[in-house]
Structures are given as structure tokens and as C-alpha cells.
Structures
1.
Amino acid sequence: MARKLTKQELHNLAMNIVGTELEKEGFEFIAINSTLGKHPQFVCIDSSNQRYFVLVKAIAYPDNPHNYDMVWMEAFKKHAREQEAKVYYAGVGLQNAVNPNQPVFLNEDYTLEYAGLQLIETHLN
């Protein structure tokens, strides 16, 4: 019998997808936090030592992974300005490949909707 992925497992899957992209882009990881609901998930630097906070959210069908809560984001923008960091949002849409109305199951195919890292302007409200 198929077992649906928990929210933490979906979050971990999304983090793996984003972490792989960050590695390919050459970022160096300073800290990683995989606890569901704790942000940022990744603190990393680029080759010029610019610090980045990366916020990862696993989004289930039918919600749009590219949208985020503007009020929720304001706290991170403020913290990033204080730390002279930039903020990336990574919304990762995950859905059951066979039936989008069903959850994602362990060891079964899923559909991924991920547009990459979205740079969030920290100086804009």
C-alpha cells in the first residue's frame, strides 16, 4: 500500500531540489536548516562572499508555488538588510504524476513545478 509523503518529507524533497541548484550555481553553504517552518533553510555565500538567505517552500497542488505571502516575506527582508544579505525565494510545486488530486506518495512519480530561485528585492516594500 502506498504511503503519502508527510509535510516534512515534502519539505525535504523541495530542499534537495533547491540545494542541488545552489551547488550547481557554485554557492557555498554556511548553514542548512531542514526543520519545517524554520527559515531560512539555506544560508550561503557566492564567490564574492555575498551572503544569501534562501527560503524554500514545498507547495502542493493546486496552489501556485511562485506566489508567496508578502507579509510573511517582510520579516526576512528586514533581517536580510540588517545582515547585508540577499534573499531568494524558492517555491517548489509538487504533485502526484498520475492524479494531481491525490497526494505525492513515497517511491512514486511526481510532477515538479519549479522556476528556480526568485531574487526578492529587500529594499522594496
Note: DSSP finds two helices and six strands in the chain.
2.
Amino acid sequence: MPLPDAMFCAQQIPIPPELPDILKQFTKAAIRTQPTDVLRWSAGYFSALSRGEPLPIKDRLELPVATQKTDTGLTQGLLKVLHKQCNHMQYVELADLKHKWKNLCLPVEKFKALLELDPHENIIEWIKFLALGCSMLGGSLNTAMKHLCEILTADPEGGPARIPFETFSYVYQYLSSLDPDLPDSETESYLAMLKENIKNGLIGLSDFFFPRRHI
């Protein structure tokens, strides 16, 4: 015979005590990050949460938010998210990086276009991928370096955005090498000039930001 309809009340349905806080933090993260594909981003969020990995969350809301239909979708905030997820590794597998990229609702064709700037097979040095991402955000080498400093700095937001000169020099040389019209001698003399004018081995936005070549 058919079973009678079950009757439930609030006392019969156990709710895990941690669930309300999980949902609260998830909602705040979604509002701050503004993913263009909430389901895709949510899958990445809870997958990272279950593994104890850095979550795909922006530090703050970015306005206006670019869309895949009108732009690359890539922003400094999203690059910073990727950096939090990958900076503990010197090299990252492109398959894993592509997965993280898609979880941030970024178009795959832009991922491929970025790698066309410096093709790699299976892995890439993380700092180089970050540099390529920064170059995609701006049209000049200095603009790319500005984004890099703001992502890597330990200074508070709105501060000088200082990073170690060694890191700055490594990335600047790398991006410069991708420009066939920029002589190595010019890059070397520019970095040597900068090094003479910095203190404590750190370089910030005010130390280098003036018009330079496009990349």
C-alpha cells in the first residue's frame, strides 16, 4: 500500500549549524565579485572552499564591471584573484590555470589570445602569466607595470604600491623582450637609471610612471 504523505516541521529538519554562515559569506562574496555566470563561479567557489584553497573572491567591488560581450572581461581585481590562487607556485599548469580562468567567468578565447603573446606547452611561470595579464589590461609597458605593482604590493590601497625592484626588473625585462622594436640596451639603461633612484630595494608608482613605449 502507498506510504502516507510525510509531514515535516522545523523541528524534524536538522540544519547544520555552520550553514547560515556559509551562505552568508557566499552571498557577500558573490556581491563583491559580481560574476557574469553565477552558476559557473559558484561551482568554483564551493570547490575551492571544500579543498581549503584560496577562494575566487575580489577584495572589493569593481565598477563598472566589464562584460564578455563588449570587452575581455579581465580586470585588475580578477587578476588579483588569480594571483591569490596561484602565487604559492612558481610554475602553474595551463590546464589548471584555464580551469580557474573559466571559474571567474572569463572567455576562453581571451585566455588563448593571452598565451599567444608567449606560447607555452603545458606549464608557465606564474609571474610571467601575471605579467601577460597586466599587459592585456593596458596599452603601454608602464601601464602594465602599474597594474603589476598594485597587484603585488603589500602597501595599503591608495599607497605607493611598492614592490621589490628585483621583481619589477624581472617582469619589465620579460615584457620588453616581447617587443621586437625595443632594444635590450634601452631596457638595461632604463632599469639602471631606476635602480639609482630607489631606496630600500623597493620601487613604487611614483618612481617609474611616465610615458613609455606601447607593447
Note: Residues 138-214 form one domain.
3.
Amino acid sequence: MEQIEVFKALSNEARLQILEWLKNPAVYFSPQEGIDLEEIGVCVSHITEKLGMNQSTASQYLAILQRAGLITATRIGKWTYYRRNEDAINQVGLFLKKELKKD
């Protein structure tokens, strides 16, 4: 995980909102038939709808979060599902904690 990519990804309010929603997907998204929101993730179409943006912009935001390693994607049929990468997010927290202690 490259820190600069992570912080670029976190510099946008909508991308931060996506991460918040994916932290507890059952709270923010309706159940999806046959899909475990915690294990598989949330369908891109549901994220797009919740954002209130066009699919192109939402997909671009998700791609930035994925390149930064903050979310993972699972493809099932023609749909892509996203969930948080908790290990990577924890690493960001540890990095910040370490950097803040330097001062």
C-alpha cells in the first residue's frame, strides 16, 4: 500500500462516505438475495444509487479506493461487489499513529 495513493483516495468526501457505508453495509443497504453483505460486499449499482451520482463517477471513485487498497472487489456474473479491506484500513491507522508520535 502506497501512502500517497491512500491519502489521495481519502481526500474526497464521497469516497469517505463509501468507506463509512461499507463499514456496516447491513445498516446502509438493503439485503441482496443470496449475497452476504459482510463477506461478499455491496453491489456497485446500490452504491451508485445511494451516492446519487451517475455510474461512471461512482465507478471511478470505487476504482480509486480499490487501487489504494482500501476496498476489494468480487465479480459475480455481470455484477461487481465491493467491501472494505479492514487490514489495509488498520494499516493506515497504525501509520498515522506512528507518524503522530514522531512529533
Note: The chain has six helices and three strands.
